[in-house]
Specification:
disordered N terminus
Length: 626
């Protein structure tokens, strides 16, 4: 099972999706509408006693989908191929995690809470400006990423166990020096391939679907022809500002805020100061005499105090930034005047004021409007909670959606034929994102016709939803889905014909027939590659497929799947490596070989762990073909 899935994850498209979604955490076909909300929260992956549920996969898919749309925009069209790649990546990750979790349980491997805390506290992303761990910053970053604290901790714990079981055992794999020559030969030898492509789309179906087959497809694939439940809803949106707009702080609250934050409104006088410090009064007196004789402050500091220009420039300071012994003296000077020598616990100081920035003060009357708005925003959630409670009391007492909309002067919005996938027959585009959110959908589908929901909080405001009408799920008429069935049948016929051609081509080639003769027999075009290294490719084959193809002997055919298309290739010529490589190139070859060996060993280790358990993956429930 795990080997089957892993073998499908090497296409360039899958790799592109993994980069696109920026996840640290192949090609099956036939995916159709991945999100399945119609049933209970089913078990979709099971390894021993470890179970992964449908909702777990749905949640991860929706997060990856939203991440993709955040990059390309909400109108970005997610194709079946993209959906396929994202779902398969999630399945692969969750399957590995389940195997690791079950293996860790059997081996009594656990990660202490203390270790988890140490790792979290050391994350640079969670540090404040002073380099200290900030719980608030961690929660903010997790929230922005759509992660709960518990999910982050569980994932971190799982990754440590995975490293212990799969990565650590293979990290010290080494390659003997005597293998250098052979590695060079393997890496730099070239081969020429001749190949044909068998594409189901180009197959010709010489008959039409019968009425019996039409009915059989309709019966066998009935769930695909079901029109899901749809709902017409009305809703109002209330922003945080709307809910808290009725609140005005008292005069006492405004005065208290002003005094508590006086530093924002009264900026004290500041002075730009130059300073020299001496250990002895004798040196300080000598420097002062030089200044009185007309000496430049920076030059005297350099010659007598042995200070650089940077050390001498004390910068712009307020009175409370200076040592008490010298602050009065400095702030008693006029611009250009010098004070000193003045003794403090640090030594003897000579200070010069080069410029003065006067105190700036914003009076309470001028700051009042801003303070009121600030207090209102700071208390907005508390105020909103009170208003929400009042609204829900009114709804419980019989108030209508129209009553609430009128009171808060907001319009009533409507969505026609909303489905559980967030799509609708008619909807204002500005509500497309919120209507697709899990909470909005769950709320809209949790009430009966005519009922009004409780207040729902979303990222952009508060919503109250009323269900106006429910169109129950039903099976579409055969006549309505006939074109869909005809296409399904035709595609299957073409796939079957293409597979027959592949089987016949492989049979003839394996029995020694020439690829040109075989191609003529089946009306296929033979193509010839340039001499290629195994690190290069043709026909968009994956790196893994190229490695497998290079293992074949001259004249030995190889069948390779490329999405739905199949390539049948035959190595026809080997060109040995013609030169020795540099030490740098050899190091790169050895590094790549070690990485490949480590990854293959880790894969085999995961397969060995998996062999100890019953492994089940419900492909149909996941929206994938068996």
């Amino acid at each position: 099972m795990i080997t089957k899935i892993r073998s499908l994850q090497d296409s360039w498209f899958v790799k592109g999706i993994l980069i696109l979604t920026a996840l640290s955490f192949m090609s099956l076909f036939g995916i159709s509408g991945y999100i399945n909300r119609s049933g209970a929260n089913a078990e979709v992956i099971k390894v021993g006693d470890v179970v992964v549920y449908q909702d777990d996969i749905n949640q991860q898919y929706e997060q990856q989908l939203q991440m993709t749309k955040n990059i390309f925009g909400e109108d970005f069209d997610i194709s079946d191929e993209m959906r396929n790649a994202m779902v398969q990546n999630i399945v692969q990750k969750e399957l590995i995690n389940a195997i690791v979790k079950e293996t860790a349980k059997d081996f009594n491997i656990s990660i202490s809470d203390d270790l988890i805390r140490k790792i979290i506290y050391s994350q640079a992303e969670f540090m404040d400006a002073n380099g200290n761990f900030s719980l608030e910053k961690m929660r903010r970053m997790l929230s922005l990423s759509g992660w709960s604290e518990q999910r982050y901790i569980n994932t971190l714990r799982q990754d440590i166990i995975k490293q212990h079981l799969l990565q650590n055992p293979v990290e010290n794999i080494n390659i003997p020096q005597f293998m250098n020559k052979f590695l060079n030969q393997l890496e730099n030898q070239k081969k020429v391939f001749r190949y044909v492509s068998i594409n189901p789309d180009k197959m010709i179906v010489d008959r039409k679907i019968s009425e019996e087959e039409l009915q059989q497809y309709y019966d066998d694939f009935a769930p695909q022809f079901e029109e899901p439940e749809k709902r017409d809803i009305s809703f109002i949106k209330l922003s945080l500002d709307q809910l808290s707009s009725g609140f005005t702080p008292s005069e006492e609250e405004v005065e208290m805020y002003y005094q508590d934050n006086i530093s924002q409104y009264v900026i004290p006088e500041k002075r730009h100061v130059l300073q020299m410090i001496f250990n002895s009064q004798q040196d300080a007196d000598k420097a002062m005499a030089a200044l009185n004789a007309g000496g430049d402050f920076y030059n005297v500091a350099k010659d007598i105090a042995k200070q650089s220009r940077e050390d001498t420039d004390f910068g712009l300071v307020s009175k409370d930034m200076l040592i008490a012994d010298i602050s009065d003296a400095v702030f008693g000077l006029k611009k250009g005047e010098i004070a000193g020598p003045i003794k403090s616990e640090l030594g003897w100081h000579i200070m010069k004021v080069t410029s003065i920035v006067p105190q700036k003060e914003t009076k309470l009357a001028a700051a009042k409007a801003q303070i009121i708005e600030t207090i209102r925003k700071e208390n907005a959630y508390d105020q909103a909670a009170e208003v929400v409670a009042e609204i829900e009391d009114k709804l419980g007492g019989g108030a209508t959606l129209e009553d609430i909309a009128s009171q808060y002067k907001v319009g009533i919005n409507k969505i026609s034929a909303l489905g559980e996938d967030g799509q609708a027959k008619k909807m204002d585009p500005k509500f497309k994102k919120v209507a697709a959110s899990a909470d909005f959908i769950d709320t809209a589908f949790s009430y009966n016709s005519g009922e009004i929901s409780q207040v729902l909080e979303e990222d952009d405001g508060f919503y109250i939803i009323r269900v106006d009408d429910i169109q129950d799920a039903h099976l579409k008429d055969l006549a309505e889905v006939k074109p869909q069935i005809q296409k399904m049948w035709t595609d299957n016929e073409k796939n079957a014909i293409a597979q027959e051609v592949v089987n016949d081509v492989m049979h003839d080639l394996e029995n020694g027939d020439n690829i040109d003769n075989v191609a003529r027999r089946f009306n296929l075009v033979v193509k010839t590659t340039q001499p290629l290294k195994k690190s290069e490719n043709f026909a968009t084959l994956s790196p893994k497929q190229m490695v497998e193809l290079f293992q074949n002997q001259i004249g030995e055919p190889k069948q390779l799947s490329l999405d739905e298309e199949v390539i049948v290739a035959v190595p026809t010529k080997t060109i040995k490596a013609s030169k020795n490589v540099s030490a740098k190139e050899l190091d790169a070859i050895r590094s790549n070989a070690k990485t490949d060996m480590a990854q293959e060993t880790a894969n085999e280790l995961a397969d060995a762990f998996a062999s100890n358990y019953d492994v089940e993956v419900e492909y149909k429930q996941l929206g994938l073909a068996d």
